[in-house]
Amino acid sequence: MMSSRVFMIWVWAVVVGIPAATGDGWFHGERVYEEAEEAALIYTNVTGVYSPKFHGNESKAVYSPLMVGLTLIPAAAATGAVCLDGTLPGYHLHRGFGSGANSWLIQLEGGGWCNSIRTCVYRKTTRRGSSRYMEKQLAFTGILSNRAEENPDFYNWNRVKVRYCDGASFLGDSENKAAQLQFRGQRIWVAAMQDLMSKGMRNAHQALLSGCSAGGLATILHCDEFSELFPRTTKVKCLSDAGLFLDSLDVAGVRTLRNMYSGVVSLQGVGKNLPRVCTNHLDPTLCFFPQHIIASVKTPLFILNAAYDSWQIQSSLAPPSADPHGLWNDCRKNNARCNPSQIQFLQGFRNRMLRTVRRFSMSKANGMFINSCFAHCQTERQDTWFADDSPVIRNKAIALAVGDWYFGRSAARAVDCAYPCDQTCHNLVFK
């Protein structure tokens, strides 16, 4: 057990900085928008720093998570629903049992975006752009766990992790023949849902669409589309984890994330697949930001987000491009090293996030858990989802808050006090 609740992400360079000799996540002068939460997952799973509740005499030394194999979707090729490099998309499915046999949880994988030919060409040489490089098995932990003591409400559901290999949050539909790039995220989404419907999801009594980061954004943008797959008798809801990306000014006064999203939307033909309720009056790039979408989503939606989202701090608020003198280097990697003016800037970001969800929170159907942590993606990590020392708001862990909301046991609109009051956070610290 790590009493400090701080998780050292020593594999950061491996996960984010792969393409660049500089190791800072930049590729020939362009930002590679990968996700820091994977580093956290690698470190957590390897070292076992979380404290699950074990069965009987089972010891921590022998604990191992459920490993689930990759299933490719052969029928996807006929509709052009392929990864960036033209390979088949896929997912990992673990069947439900008992009372959960007719309930389905779909988790959309995250993994950043690619916004130029150069970054997309690189991406297709990784698992983020090709099933050729995807892991053949994935650990199902957190919201995907099959143990009631780790995942109290969804452990016996049919649980699926849909792999992400398009680079536009499952929304693009275009191609670049010269670069041999297929931007077919929307088609992958449709093909995956059709395949799962044929495998029993059409008979679901309950369904939950969820996703982390870029997958959390996809969850928001596909939520109503997901709901329309089912008859009205099916209880359908959506959960976005770390998907509330804000259109914010960075420390240099530039909208870094908006500039990047503009490249994603235009390059990959995303605009035609964005909700018309937004694109009828706003530029498609702005409609890729969930702040312009969440209040109009008809399906019940739960937003889980860290108020000081570590990915947004690193890649949107204080990226190296906005900090040429490295004044934010220490703060960007470790919140304990932020000076008062930097904390004040980050408090402003939290305030904007709270203003963004104000109208959304007025609907009794929606749920919310915004904790004042320096984190990113908290559903698939066991230590943050449901463990002995998980983050809480008013003594309620994330898993219990989500379950209470989904099943209507109690209202679930929890907003944490401002940093540094929450001592239950599992803050990410980057090497």
Based on the model shown, name its key terms.
431 residues; alpha/beta; ten-stranded mixed sheet; two-stranded parallel ribbon; 13 helices; 18 strands; disordered N terminus; EC 3.1.1.-; signal
- What is the arithmetic mean of pLDDT? 89
Unreliable spans are 1-32, 35-61
User: How would you sum up the global shape?
Assistant: globular
Radius of gyration equals: 20 Å
- Main beta-sheet annotation: 10 strands, mixed
Proportion in β-strands: 15-25%
Strand-pairing-aware structural class:
alpha/beta
Q: What's the β-strand tally?
A: 18
Distance between the ends: 20 Å
Helix content: 25-40%
State the strand order across the main sheet.
7-4-5-8-6-11-12-13-14-17
> If helices are DSSP runs of H or I spanning 4 or more residues, what is the number of helices?
13
Pfam families: PAE
Enzyme class: hydrolase
EC number: 3.1.1.-
InterPro entries: PAE/NOTUM
Indicate the topology.
Layout: E1 6-9, H1 12-15, E2 26-27, E3 30-31, H2 37-47, E4 66-72, E5 90-94, E6 103-108, H3 117-123, E7 137-140, E8 158-162, E9 174-176, E10 181-183, H4 185-198, E11 206-212, H5 214-227, E12 235-241, H6 256-268, H7 276-279, H8 284-287, E13 301-306, H9 310-317, H10 329-333, H11 340-356, E14 367-371, H12 382-385, E15 392-393, E16 396-397, H13 398-407, E17 413-415, E18 427-430
Parallel strand pairs: 1-18, 6-8, 6-11, 11-12, 12-13, 13-14, 14-17
Antiparallel strand pairs: 2-3, 4-5, 4-7, 5-8, 9-10, 15-16
